Amino acid sequence: FFVLMLQGLNIFLPSTRQLSWRFSLIFIISIILVVVPLAVSFLIAVGSKSASAKRSSFLLGPRILFSLIPVGLYLFVLSKIPLPSALATSDSFTSSLARLIVVGTVILGLLSGFGAVNHSWTYLPRFKQGEPTDKDIAVAEHTLHSVRNDLHDRRALAQQRANASDANSSWISRMINFRGDDLTQELR
């Protein structure tokens, strides 16, 4: 964001801003690719400090090496994601960014698809939880009655405003304000 503000104010040379942008992007990608998976893997392998911390301190070296295995597998699987032919000759930074975009898009697609399918199952008629009760019907009728009353009141108020503005306004002011007020727009 700061680099975009500098560009808008025409501060620094474009090459300097691009260098700053690339450094920031490399920093973020290195955190995503290495630091976060390594930290999670290390915390799972080593665990939290417990009463037996003195007893297991000599096993810390093998645990650290054990925590590198999932990160190495993760990076290996990430490197096997195929790239488009236009990016086949690009540097490792660009290819890793493209692969991260693919992984992120797949994860977002899976999450939204799962959410849509899961949400639709709740509204299928044969999977609903029984018939509506008398209380459900009473609540629905009360809500419908409230909505109808509110709509009737708003239409009456809009009609009063329209009658008052027609009497006090000229032809040109009515033509310029062709959209009407907010209440009229809401009722449409």
Write the layout of secondary structure elements.
Layout lengths: L1 H7 L5 H33 L13 H20 L12 H30 L12 H35 L2 H6 L5 H6 L1
Helix pairs in contact: 2-3
Properties at a glance:
188 residues; mainly alpha; 7 helices; 73% helix; 0% strand; flat
Write down the overall mean pLDDT.
79
Residue share in helices?
over 70%
Strand content: under 5%
> Tally of extended strands?
0
- Structural class label: mainly alpha
Number of helices, counting only DSSP H or I runs of 4 residues or more: 7
- SSE sequence, one letter per element: HHHHHHH
Instruction: Describe the main β-sheet briefly.
Output: none
How big is the Rg? 31 Å
Distance between the termini: 40 Å
Low-confidence spans: pLDDT under 50, at least 5 residues? none
Shape: flat
